Amino acid sequence: MKDLLCPLCGRLIDHHINGLCKDCFLKNITIANVPQVIHTIICTECGAVKKGRRWEMNDTEMEELIKEQIISSVKINPILKDYGISVRLASRDPFIFNGKIVVNSLIEGTKIDIELETQVRVKKETCIICSRRAGGYYEAIVQIRAQGRFPDEDEQDQVLDMIYNIIDRQYNSGNGMSFITKIEKLHEGTDVYLGSNSIARQICRSASDRFGANFAESSTLAGRKDGENIYRITYSLRLPRFVSGDIIRFLDETILIRHSGKRTSGLNLGTGHEFAEHTNKLKDADKVSDIGSAVSTVLISVEDDIIQVMHPQTFQSITLQKPAYLSGTGGEEIKTVVIGDSLVILPPK
Ligand SMILES: [Zn+2]
Ligand SMILES: [Zn+2]
């Protein structure tokens, strides 16, 4: 029903916006606008975007990122309560993107679509983090070592795996300084150079929880920046002295170590009982043998809790107390270790 007159153009209209026809309404108001040119700086290495003076990490695809930037640059008149923005991109080269923007809106029941155009010009730079990384920057070194021995390859790999996981997790949650500058394999262990000191510290805490490692830190002056001293921190990470398979003497008991972490557990070879102790309480323990030194011999006979065993070196029959974990009845082959003057029977597994 056309029973209204537009007060500006005098046209008959069936419904009005703010009292005007659609054309007159749009002539008098800016529904949406966008700058003709949008400049953006993106890191060629990692895709981070420069916002003001800061670099913001970014893991979206280039085109998505450009679209997001266009959408955030569109200014919408606050009278629009209900609207949608869509962007179509065309690029002639990797540095220039032309964007066609459509703003769909509904104002007082009238559908209004506005078309806008912009051009995004991309400047490629290297962000602070990538240039630091490329320049071999590091804040801390974590030295993977062991107490009183050299850590084996497998142990070092386990710690390295843990480090890679922490680095990944931290990087993915937005810490761009979460990177490894270099890894140095040494005779006595592995040195890991890290971009972030706080991550180095986190690595040490996790290694302490997971592997029962101790760590000590020392700092060296690396230079001065903006009038302040810059220190590099070295963390000496020490894996426990004993590993699974070691046989130790601790408080006059002979213990076969089965697990070494924050707590050390194993088997008391004297009593046959399970053993568990805080690793840092084993300071005065000594390694006396290990499972690698085990020798097979014959269990000659078993009578109640007394057994006869052939000594693997003298071949003489000797009498021992039957350990709880020994299940043979005589004639079987068993594993033993010779520790000083005594013969110790090992469990079957
Ligand atoms: Zn009008
Ligand atoms: Zn970067």
TrEMBL record:
<protein>
    <submittedName>
        <fullName>Uncharacterized protein</fullName>
    </submittedName>
</protein>
